[in-house]
Amino acid sequence: MNTIHKAAELLGLNISQAMGDQETRILEGLVRNGPEITSSTLRVTHLPPRVRLLDKIREGFPVGAVQHIVDSGRLNLSEVDQVVLPRKTLANRRKVGALTADQSDRLLRVARVIAAAEEVFGNAEKAHVWLRRPTTALDGEPPLDLLDTEEGAREVETLLTRIAHGIAA
């Protein structure tokens, strides 16, 4: 499973590619969490999973995706407030039922880095600790604190790649 699939899974947005016909679906998480999404709107033929995910980002993820990552223990509400969207905004988005495209993009960015860390460190617990521990390779900041910007996320992903390849961080 690649990192983008793992990130989508962390948000309850399971992406799979059907064998043979290249049909892409965003499954259980969106069906459960998105009140206006039906199985018929999830089918797109001849599009790779990443393209379909981009469509869902642009449409806005269901607010339930935030709760899914919180319920999984990957982030707490304070961390969501810090790197994805403020609590007051989250409360307002709950009324609407969906995140904006920008909020969805930020949420996926954080989930993508968490998924990469879990892959590099071999499990969620080690990744959880690493993401919250200050590191000299990031000027003494915890990796999670940098995920509020795309550039910060890139720095963290670069460091994870170095660690995965055994290059001194």
Automatic annotation (TrEMBL):
- Domain Antitoxin Xre-like helix-turn-helix, residue spans: 53-112
Q: Which domain of life is it from?
A: Bacteria
InterPro entries, A to Z: Antitox_Xre, Xre-like_HTH, Xre/MbcA/ParS-like_toxin-bd
Domain Antitoxin Xre/MbcA/ParS-like toxin-binding: residue ranges? 116-166
* NCBIfam families named in the record: TAS_TIGR02293 (TIGR02293)
Cite a single Pfam family from the UniProt record: Xre-like-HTH
Annotated protein name in UniProt: DUF2384 domain-containing protein
